[in-house]
TrEMBL record:
It comes from the Bacteria. It comes from Clostridium aminobutyricum. NCBIfam families: HTH_TypR. It holds the Pfam family Sigma54_activat. InterPro entries: AAA+_ATPase, AAA_lid_NorR, Homeodomain-like_sf, HTH_Fis, HTH_TyrR, P-loop_NTPase, PAS, PAS-assoc_C. Residues 76-128 form the PAC domain. PROSITE patterns: PAC, PAS, SIGMA54_INTERACT_1, SIGMA54_INTERACT_3, SIGMA54_INTERACT_4. This is HTH-type transcriptional regulatory protein TyrR. GO terms for molecular function: ATP binding; sequence-specific DNA binding. Keywords: Aromatic hydrocarbons catabolism, ATP-binding, Nucleotide-binding, Transcription, Transcription regulation. Residues 9-59 form the PAS domain. PANTHER family: C4-DICARBOXYLATE TRANSPORT TRANSCRIPTIONAL REGULATORY PROTEIN DCTD (PTHR32071:SF57), TRANSCRIPTIONAL REGULATORY PROTEIN (PTHR32071).
Length: 457
């Protein structure tokens, strides 16, 4: 060790340290800069003359080091490694090592710094590729369950559904009619621990109010006129150890909402006409195409039940907001219809362009119905624009005319900003990288993403 310390002042070691690409600093035990090699100028834009004799704490205050690794070594009395940025925004890996004499007294501090910006960028790219591969695996896994998706919005929905499959949290699925709320409920059940048990689906709006209580909770014999002599199990009992899916939950009468709340809280039901409580172990998934919170404000839905059902919400965006899903959905529906009637129909590119411009107010359900209608009613193997329903022509023509209407400068700028942010988000993925690419601060990026409803990292 002594020979090594003496070599600091030799004519052999310093030229060697001066020739390497890593920045090398030598400081005294008290933090006074003694020497640095030529690479220090490349990474820190500082010459030896500018730092010689100065204390590392003063150099830190002046912004040369952010932070000073030597200061950290002096504080901790041991080696320190950190990742930080220089003035140019490059990512540096810096290591400070204390040198001790034979009496275990610190005599000097050696600090080395290396530019790892390219390595970090490659790591981010690798993570992005891995995430994309995971997305494709996720879509491949779920496509067999009837889910077809290609948009980032649906990626997020599927990722959330995947995470929720393994837990028993109560889920509320929201979205317009026809977006696929039932499909997501299927995914949650089939990929969860209850998949071997029943999935019972109930449309709360399709059962008459006079019958819905007995359908849900069952009844004892002689409970009412016309009932079975032996009584009947309700759908909650039928779903025991499995999942119960309450579709159109907003249509549940207020009187039944109270009883459903009791079932969720107490995990037991009582049949109509009965007094015995029956323990229930089911996972509850509900869905609605209405704004339940607004119904709560209007006193048409119980607030306590709303908060019990809305433990984890999943919102499925309408088809008009996930443009990338339209063609895959059309192609999937076309394949299914061709298989069903043993046909080989295809859609002309001009007809496909018209279908892409349509708003699809009925969402995926409307799309599937229209494709099936086209396959059945078109005599030729190629579905042409003239084969499309007239209302699609009229709607797309009306939308095209609307797009030509003048807009305010603010609206145009907002739209341009939203598209730019969306593109940067899909390219970079993180708010830090978006901020760097757009030349704005990270808090500004987070605020603007929230403004336009673009999901942040």
């Amino acid at each position: 060790m002594r020979e090594f310390l003496d070599a600091f002042h030799s004519d052999e070691l310093l030229p060697i340290l001066d020739s390497i690409s890593d920045a090398v600093f030598i400081d005294s035990k008290d933090g006074i800069a003694l020497w640095c090699n030529k690479a220090c100028y490349e990474l820190y834009k500082v010459s030896p003359e500018e730092i010689y004799g100065k204390h590392v704490a003063d150099l830190e205050k002046s912004g040369v080091f952010t932070p000073s690794v030597a200061c950290l070594v002096m504080e901790q009395k041991k080696g320190v490694t950190i990742v930080h940025e220089n003035k140019d925004g490059k990512r540096l890996l810096s290591t400070g090592i204390p040198i001790f004499d034979s009496n275990n007294h610190m005599t000097k501090i050696i600090t080395t710094s290396r530019d790892i910006t390219e390595l970090v960028n490659l790591q981010h790219q690798l993570e992005s590729v891995q995430n994309t591969l995971e997305d494709f695996k996720l879509l491949g896994k779920f496509s067999s369950d009837g889910m077809v998706a290609n948009s980032h919005q649906m990626f997020h929905v599927l990722q959330l559904a995947k995470r929720l499959s393994d837990v028993d949290s109560t889920v509320l699925i929201t979205g317009e009619s026809g977006v696929g709320k039932g499909v997501i409920a299927n995914l949650l059940h089939r990929n969860g621990r209850r998949k071997e048990k029943p999935l019972i689906k109930i449309n709360c709006g399709a059962i008459p109010e006079s019958l819905i209580e007995s359908e849900l909770f069952g009844y004892e014999r002689g409970a009412f006129t016309g009932s079975r002599a032996e009584g009947k199990k309700g759908l909650f009992e039928t779903a025991q150890d499995g999942t119960i899916f309450l579709d159109e939950i907003s249509e549940l009468p207020l009187t039944l909402q109270v009883k459903l709340l009791q079932v969720i809280q107490e995990k037991e039901i009582t049949r109509v006409g009965g007094v015995k409580s029956i323990p229930i172990d089911v996972r509850i998934i509900s869905a609605t195409n209405k704004d339940l919170f607004e119904l709560v404000n209007e006193k048409k839905f119980r607030a306590d039940l709303y908060y019990r059902l809305n433990v984890v919400p999943i919102n499925i965006p309408p088809l008009r907001e996930r443009y990338e899903d339209i063609i895959p959905l059309i192609q999937h529906a076309l394949r299914e219809c061709n298989k069903k009637i043993h046909a080989n129909k295809q859609i002309d590119s001009n007809a496909m362009a018209i279908l892409l411009k349509y708003d699809w107010p009925g969402n995926v359900r409307e799309l599937e119905n229209i494709v099936e209608r086209l396959v059945i009613t078109t005599k030729e193997d190629i579905i042409m624009p003239e084969n499309l329903p007239s209302f699609i022509y009229e709607t797309t023509h009306s939308n095209r005319n609307k797009s030509l209407e003048p807009v305010t400068l603010k609206d145009a700028l907002d739209k341009a900003e939203q598209e730019l942010l969306s593109s940067a988000y899909h390219k970079h993925g993180s708010t830090r990288m978006i901020a760097k690419s757009l030349g704005i601060s990270q808090p500004s990026v987070v605020r603007k993403l929230r403004k336009y409803g673009i999901p942040a990292e």
